[in-house]
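I need you to check the entry underneath: sequence plus fold tokens. Let me know what the token row says about the fold.

>
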Amino acid sequence: MGESVRELKELARYQDLFKNLVSRDLKVRYRRSVLGFLWVILNPLFMMIILYMVFSGLFHFTTENYVAYLLSGIIFWNFYAQSTSTSMLSFVSNSDLIRKIYLPKAIFPLSVIASALVNFAFSLIPLFAVFLLTGTHPGSYVVFLPLFLIQAALFSFGVALMLSTLMVFFRDTQYIYEVLLLGWMYTTPIFYPESIIPHHFKFILYLNPLYYFLTLFRTLVFTHDAALAANIVIVTGLSVLSFSGGWLFYNRYKDRLIFHL
């Protein structure tokens, strides 16, 4: 336990390196792109248009504010999927640096999550622009959005620590996670309303942690769910559980990583 606390303190000491890594991740992602950082805004919009054309006939009349419902789901899913998938490779892709000098290795997946969080924050621009165009009023709980961003980052960081550690020992982790992520996407109500799920299959939805995150996100930005306090408690618990599990798993194997990179 003392070793774990010590590394957390070391992460704070390496804040300059952390800032440089976050900046590098943001620059590399859009370095050869003509539109560059604008893709943070355009990507979810294009995905929304395509999915709206495909599914609006099915769900438009059964889901209030379907455009806002769809875009909010896309934005949150993009953050989680891209941040965890990219951070999974953080130890492997930085193996030369890890072998040469000592530094807290957790700083690499953390920087990826932080850069994805920046993208997530900027992707809220098209979401609120769509609200303005469609006459959708932001929820009165939107002031709690910064808290949600911290919760989402903490949950994703825990998953990233587990995945990036596993990736060092089992390179097939990347391909297995891609398959799991695809199945995870279809069991999360991103583009379809949860009301269409048969009652005897609802337990699958309730076992999905991202369902609670997405429900809370939508509650904060445009819906008015009376169960806000309960949702915040559940999401906070999931965030702490994910981070604690990922941090303990990483700390158990971190000293062996260098021998397998």
About this structure: Residues 2-257 form one domain. The mean pLDDT is 86. The chain is about 75% helix and 0% strand. The chain has one domain: 2-257.
